[in-house]
Design a protein that fits this description.
The protein is mostly helical. The protein has helices spanning 2-15, 25-42, 52-59, 65-69, 118-126, 133-144, 152-159, 161-189, 194-240, 256-272, 282-304, 315-318, 324-335, 341-347, 353-382, 399-431, 439-459, 463-490, 495-524, and strands at residues 84-85, 88-89. Strands 1-2 form a two-stranded antiparallel sheet.
């Protein structure tokens, strides 16, 4: 890592690039785009993201380099592969992108299967499949529209209708900007991952911060998915077998806690033991389909809900309520996909900042509309009775809702291993960087992660509290604090850096206030009754 950075710095010095404190960030980003495009042509049109400067340092001896290739911006083509960990290629949570879920800060040719040959590695990367704007849009939208969408009606209940709408729109704009900021930061720092950028800017402390944020976000997702399994599967099983609770032995399948233990240990845990999650890639398609079914179900059934089962409204619920900071955490949990942004950027056939920004704008916009529909349909129906999992507000014998519950529960069982994979990779790459695969560590980490998340899922049935805590801590760090902090460190002073400072202050305030409010609500048992079976 140190050698790669020193070469990177030397390349900048030889080419006359100004220090970060004086250079213009947009011009610098375009310079990176331009240089990488020309190298991409020379290497067959494909270049690994973030390593354009390493290639560049080997080619600057050619006098005709800039004249021949300086106009090739449109041919820019990066391919991210952030992890040759122990010689094992890792596959992401997203479909159609061959790269690791947890981006490593290490350069992929510093060992591993290509024996340190940068040209052999580049040729392999050049041949990897690329995606167009539509595929990239689907991948990013799928990253955003996840389990967190089920908690959006609850977020509106916490914030109030008026402030909830304003928050959802405003946070979408901020998240959109910070996602794009990650790519700009990557170009300015020369790093090829979110982790690598933060470590480049803040050293060991930065690596600890981003690793902790990624781990907490993924582990919080595991706990939330376990809670959802307990909320959904028993309803479905009892709808299929009405007398299930009274059956001997099989009656335990009507118990929430038993279902969580049986299904997580019987389905999710074996899938977690895979070393390569490529086998779980279809879970991404299942996730998107189940989200569409859930949104349609909530909208239709909300309209058909009898007035006797509807909630009531007060002035704070319609305007500004006391849980506005907790609502920010819930919304943030749904929108964070920052750890996948560079993977999606690298999947583009022509990954320029403009094209990636277009993908980001469309993805966050569509995701905001989906969350808005879900939030309005659920909250306007159940009002002060809205639960963290809005599906729990519907009757247990509603067939259409039970189909949505089944889709959601099965989706969570296959998605939980993906989050466990992220946690495991963060732990292995932090504590045992560069070491070969160890089956004992693999089993210990996998088992401890699944069992601990399962125990926490059994202990709580308040999905809203899980969304609040995870959103207030790790989601805020990854969305509102770390990307603008890195930008402030890397870019020259301009109006954008002052905007970044404001976002950092906002993120820190939300993190502190939301965490204290969420913990206080849990201790006092406030915030509404959660349905535990």
């Amino acid at each position: 890592m140190a050698e790669a950075r020193s070469q990177h710095a030397a390349g900048h010095h030889q080419s006359g690039v100004e220090p970060a404190s004086t250079r213009d960030p947009e011009a610098e980003a375009l310079l990176f785009d331009d240089e990488a495009s020309s190298i991409g042509e020379e290497e067959g049109g494909r270049t690994p993201n973030g390593y354009a400067n390493s290639f560049d340092s080997h080619r600057r001896s050619s006098a005709s380099y800039e004249d021949e290739h300086r106009d090739s911006l449109d041919d820019l083509d990066f391919q991210i592969d952030d992890g040759a960990h122990g010689g094992q290629h890792r596959t992401p949570l997203l479909t159609g992108i061959e790269a690791p879920s947890v981006a490593l800060a290490n350069g992929p040719w510093l060992g591993g299967e290509h024996g340190g040959d940068v040209h052999s590695w580049a040729e392999v990367e050049r041949q990897r499949p690329k995606s167009g704007l539509q595929s990239a849009f689907m991948n990013m939208a799928n990253s955003i529209i996840g389990a967190g969408i089920i908690g959006q009606p609850y977020a509106f209940r916490q914030a109030g209708l008026l402030s909830g709408v304003i928050l959802l729109v405003g946070l979408t704009v901020v998240v959109d900007w910070t996602i794009c900021l990650i790519v700009v930061n990557s170009k300015l720092s020369g790093a090829n991952s979110f982790q690598g950028t933060v470590e480049h800017c803040f050293g060991r402390s930065g690596l600890i911060a981003i690793s902790l944020a990624q781990w907490l976000f993924a582990f919080g997702g595991m706990v939330a998915f376990g809670v959802i399994v307990g909320d959904t599967i028993p309803h479905v099983l009892q709808a299929i077998w009405p007398g299930l609770r009274d059956m001997p032995v099989l009656g335990i399948l009507a118990d929430r806690k038993a279902v969580i233990v049986i299904f997580i240990l019987g389905v999710s845990y074996p899938l977690t033991l895979y070393r390569d999650i490529a086998k779980l890639a279809k879970a991404s398609t299942l996730a998107l389909m189940s989200m569409v079914i859930i949104i349609i179900t909530v909208i239709i059934q909300s309209v058909l809900m009898p007035s006797a089962d509807r909630g009531s409204f007060t002035t704070p619920l319609l305007t500004i309520n006391s849980g506005i900071f907790q609502a920010i955490g819930v919304i943030s949990f749904a929108f964070v996909c920052h750890h996948n942004s560079l993977l999606i950027y690298g999947s583009l056939k022509t990954p320029t900042i403009d094209r990636f920004s277009r993908v980001t704008h469309y993805s966050t916009g569509v995701s905001m509309l989906a969350c808005m529909l879900m939030a309005l349909a659920g909250f306007l129906t159940f009002g002060d009775q809205t639960l963290g999992n809005v599906l729990n507000n519907f009757p247990a014998d509603n067939t259409m809702v039970n189909v949505a519950r089944l889709c959601f529960g099965l989706n969570m069982l296959t998605t939980l291993p993906l989050e466990a994979f992220v946690c495991r990779e963060v732990m292995l790459n932090y504590y045992f960087p560069g070491e070969p695969f160890n089956m004992h560590l693999h089993l210990i980490f996998s088992t401890s992660l699944v069992v601990s998340a399962m125990v926490l899922s059994v202990m709580t049935c308040d999905l809203g509290s899980v969304f609040e805590l995870v959103g207030a801590t790790s989601a805020c760090a990854m969305a509102y604090i770390l990307p603008p902090l890195c930008y402030i460190k890397l870019a020259s002073r301009s109006w954008k850096t002052y905007v970044a400072i404001a976002v950092v202050i906002f993120g820190c305030c939300v993190m502190v206030i939301s965490t204290f409010q969420a913990v206080g609500k849990i201790i006092k048992g406030e915030g509404g009754v959660a349905q535990c079976m």
